[in-house]
Amino acid sequence: MSNQYTQLNRDMSSRKALIRDLTTQLILHGEIKTTEKKAKLLSGVVEKLVTVAKDNTLAARRQVAETVRFLKNADGKYAVQILFDEIAPKYKDRQGGYTQIFKLAPRQGDGAPMALIRFTK
């Protein structure tokens, strides 16, 4: 998955960690607010993970677990469980387009373009 990480003014390990964290938070919460550039990058990563998760095999779980962090939500479910048990089955008949990005007002402090990324309904 190393080809899909653009610069984002970080070294490779920091970019990978950032994408893993954002991916996990999106799965746990359903939507997150971040910069437009990060949202666009995150969208591609999450789309691929949902496509893999639709297989629902042990190999698919292990492949997803390489990217998604081992964190729980408020209900005590792990992010990988949520992806395989709730998110992927919802999109079993869909061939992509699992996420939406909405542009928001620029960030107050530095004027960075912000966006809301969430799973489609």
Q: Spell the H/E element sequence.
A: HEHHHEE
Terminal Cα span:
27 Å
Rounded radius of gyration (Å): 14 Å
CATH homologous superfamily descriptor: Ribosomal protein L17
**Quantity of strands, as a count:** 3
Mean pLDDT: 94
Which strand-content bin applies to the residues? 5-15%
At the first level of CATH, the class is Alpha Beta
In spatial order, strands of the major sheet run 1-3-2
CATH architecture: Alpha-Beta Complex
The class by helix and strand makeup works out as: alpha+beta
Count of separate DSSP helical elements: 4
Shape: globular
Polypeptide structure, described:
- This protein has helices spanning 12-29, 36-53, 58-65, 79-90; strands at 31-35, 99-103, 114-119.
- With 121 residues, the chain is an alpha+beta fold.
- It has a single domain (9-119), classed as 50s Ribosomal Protein L17, Chain: A, CATH 3.90.1030.10.
- Helix 1 crosses helix 4.
- The longest helix has 18 residues, at 12-29.
- The protein is globular.
